[in-house]
Amino acid sequence: MYFPTEEERKDLTRGLLPKAREMVVAEELRGWSWNKPPLEPIYDLKLALYEVANYYCPTARDLYMKRVMGIQARPSKAMLFGKVLHDTLAKLITAAKRAIYIESANPDGINRVAEALEALREPDYTVLEAGLKYSTDLSDLTNEELKELKDRVAIVWRHQLNAIISQVDTVLAKQPRIGVDSLVCLAIPVSVEHNLDGSFLGLSSHLSTDAYRFYDTTILDVKFGEQADFHRLTTAGYALVMESLYEYPVNLGCIIYASFKNGRLLINKDYHLIDDELRQWFIEARDEKMRMISEEIDPGMPDECYENCPYIGHCSR
Predict the structure, then answer these.
(1) Helical H runs in 27-142?
(2) Which of 2, 69, 277, 301 is the most exposed place for a label (fewest CB within 10 A)?
(3) Tens-of-pLDDT digits for all 317 residues of the chain?
(4) Rounded-to-integer distance, Cα 20 and Cα 257, Å
């Protein structure tokens, strides 16, 4: 899921990567210009990145209900499923890296890392089990819904593990004298739940990307739902934060759409440039929502509420 297919590699190499390298972004829209307009926050307020990027509610009244009215709604089924599946992916990537490091500590262990990864074949349901133990939201799911979620955890686990093993085998076949750190870096070239401090941009100091692929400096974000244009605001926000912290350009993002049909995992990837227009959209969304919260401006209900809105029972009162 986090690794590009051979077709995607070719498309990136001949298409978006050259464009990303050549793309000119206005200096004032680079994250390192956080101390001056338009990036400088206009309100003394910190927003979570998803609060800026979320436009499931077109008027953002869900954010108004949460931050101004103080109403804490319970997450929907889709939110619960997405949280467990995201955490499962992160757990697998971490477990695979750990297995490689531990096995390689043994004499001639690097030649047996494939066996260590095969030992991870049984899906790890601890994320789901911990949620059932400590979360009243998950425990409210029906037995049928829990079985559906457990099946999806197994599908995602199997798919990503197969990709990791294939990557490791490919790297080992090419590099007979490779060291363990290099193997992990080349075979699993992503940092999951990459923690970032968004304070310079008026965002939370405890942000984390779904994944960051460092060899092509691509922000990766996974969505277990339908495609939407505003999802690109997430990658734009993380790119701006990374630029504000590390002061190097981040021009490429990818939204990974994962869905399930007849027991199969279907994946569609939206690679895109994080250009001036997208950056400006993110800044305007941040400023608009900061103003709404700071000045307690009720944006009103949208013409049509989205199906899974957790505030639908409160908002319509």
Answers:
(1) 49-53, 61-67, 77-104, 113-118, 126-134, 136-139
(2) 277
(3) 899 988 999 999 999 999 999 999 999 999 999 999 999 999 999 999 999 999 999 999 999 999 999 998 888 889 899 999 999 999 999 999 999 999 988 888 888 898 999 999 999 999 888 877 666 678 788 999 999 999 999 999 999 999 999 999 999 999 999 999 999 999 999 999 999 999 999 999 999 999 999 889 999 999 999 999 999 999 999 999 999 999 999 999 999 999 999 999 999 999 999 999 999 999 999 999 999 999 999 999 999 888 888 888 888 65
(4) 22
| Concatenated DSSP letters of 247-276 | -S---EEEEEEEEEETTEEEEEEEEEE--H
Phi, psi at residue 290, to the nearest 5°? -60, -45
Place of tokens 């001949």: 14
Give the separation between CA 185 and CA 214, rounded to whole angstroms.
Answer: 9
- What are the tokens at 261? 């049909």
Cβ within 8 Å of residue 163, ≥6 positions away: 1, 2, 3
Residues 6+ apart with CB under 8 A from 140: none
Assess contact for 157 and 124: CB atoms under 8 A.
yes
Q: What is the token pair recorded at 36? A: 């001056």
Describe the strand order of the beta sheet including 252-261 as a list of residue ranges: 190-196, 207-213, 218-223, 252-261, 264-273
Could you give the 3-state DSSP secondary structure of residue 214?
A: coil
Is the separation of the CB atoms in 21 and 12 below 8 Å? Answer: no
Cis link prior to 38 (omega < 30° from 0)?
A: yes
